[in-house]
Amino acid sequence: MRYEPAGDPTASESGADEPAALDWAGASNLSTCRQPEDVDAAFDRNEPHVGVAVIALVYNNTDTTAVMLRVARALTSTNPETRRQGLLALMHTARLHGQVDDVTLDLLHGLLDDRSPISGGYEVRGTAAQTVEDLQDFLTRETLPNWVNDFVDGS
After folding, report:
1. Half-sphere exposure of 99 toward its Cβ, with a 13 Å CA cutoff?
2. Is 123 within 8 Å of 155 (Cβ atoms)?
3. Are 106 and 72 in contact, with CB atoms under 8 Å apart?
4. DSSP bridge pairs for 122
5. What is the 3-state secondary structure (H, E, C) of the chain?
6. Residue 75 phi, psi dihedral angles, 5° rounding
7. Which pLDDT does position 14 carry in this prediction?
8. 148: nearest Cα among 99, 117, 97, 106
9. Which residues, in sequence order, are CB contacts of 11 under 8 Å at separation 6+?
C-alpha cells in the first residue's frame, strides 16, 4: 500500500517538485522522506520500515527538534529493528547536527541493557554501545552527561 507524503512547503505551485508517494511496503524510496508528519503516520500504522524514514529525516529535515521527537519514538518502539534504526538516527544526528537531547540520551542509556535480537545475530544493546561511542567521537565532553563520557564498552 502506498501513502501520499505530507505536502512539501518548498514545492513549486505547479506541483512539479512534489515528492513521489512513499513506498512503505517495499521501502524503495523511504530515504527521501523529509516530513515528520509522514513518519508519525507510519508509526500510527505500525509500518515495519518506519525506522528507515526516521534515519532519512536526519538527512532531509533541518528541524532537529522535530527530528529528535521521531528518534525518541523509534527508540521506544516495540520493534527491535526500529529501536536499532532509532539508534542509528541518533548517531547521525550527533554527527551531522552536533546535538542530541536529554530524552534521547536517557532512552539510549536504557537500551544499553536491551538484549533483543536484531539482524545479523546481534542485540540492540550492541548498537546502543556503538552509539554511545559515536557520541563520544562526534560531540564535546561538555555537552554530554558523565555516563556517556565515562562509558567503555565491556561486552
Report:
1. 11
2. no
3. no
4. 118
5. CCECCCCCCCCCCCCCCCCCCECCCCCCCHHHCCCHHHHHHHHHCCCCCHHHHHHHHHHHCCCHHHHHHHHHHHHCCCCHHHHHHHHHHHHHHHHHHCCCCHHHHHHHHHHCCCCCEEHHHEEHHHHHHHHHHHHHHHCCHHHCCHHHHCCCCCC
6. -65, -20
7. 38
8. 106
9. 17, 18, 19
* Helix axes of 124-138 and 102-111: crossing angle, nearest 10 degrees: 140
Phi (first) and psi of residue 68, to 5 degrees: -60, -35
What share of the chain has pLDDT > 90, as a percent?
85
Task: Give Cα 87 to chain centroid, integer Å.
Answer: 6
Identify the pLDDT of residue 99. Answer: 95
- Residues 111-122 have pLDDT tens digits of 999 999 999 999
Rounded Cα distance between 109 and 107, Å, is 5
pLDDT per residue as tens digits for the range 124-147: 999 999 999 999 999 999 999 999
